[in-house]
Amino acid sequence: MGITYIEGSVTGPIGNRTVRFLVDSGATYTLLPHSDWRAIGLKPKREMTFTLADGATVKREISECHITLPQGEGHTPVILGEPGDEALLGSVTLEILGLVLNPFTRTLQPMRMMLA
User: Fold this and answer.
1) Which residue among 7, 39, 55, 108 is buried most deeply as judged by most CB within 10 Å?
2) CA nearest 80: which of 40, 34, 17, 11?
3) Does some domain include residue 81?
4) Are the C-beta atoms of 37 and 78 separated by less than 8 Å?
5) Residue 115, in any domain of the structure
6) For the chain, how many structural domains are there in total?
C-alpha cells in the first residue's frame, strides 16, 4: 500500500487554513498541526490518551472544526497537535464525510451505504 496525501481546508472561529493531510485510515481522529489549529482559533474541549503504533501513549487535547475536501465537507473532531506533529486525516472524519480510502488507486471515494 502506498502513501496518500490530500489537500483540504479547515475552518475555525477566526479563519481558515489549507492543510496537506496524510490519509491514515488506521488513525481514529484527524490531527491538525499546532500552527494550523492556532491560526484558525481552535480551543481545547477535552483531553484524550492515544496509543501510537509503537505502543507508546500520548495525551492530546481535542477540539472541533469544519473541514472541506475535494470530495465533501463537514464538521469533525480534531486532535490539537503539538509542535512537530504532522497533519493526519483519520477514520472518524472519513466516516463523517461518507468517504473511504481506495488502497489500489490511493484516492478517497464515496462510501457504499447498505440498508439493513
Assistant:
1) 108
2) 34
3) yes
4) yes
5) no
6) 1
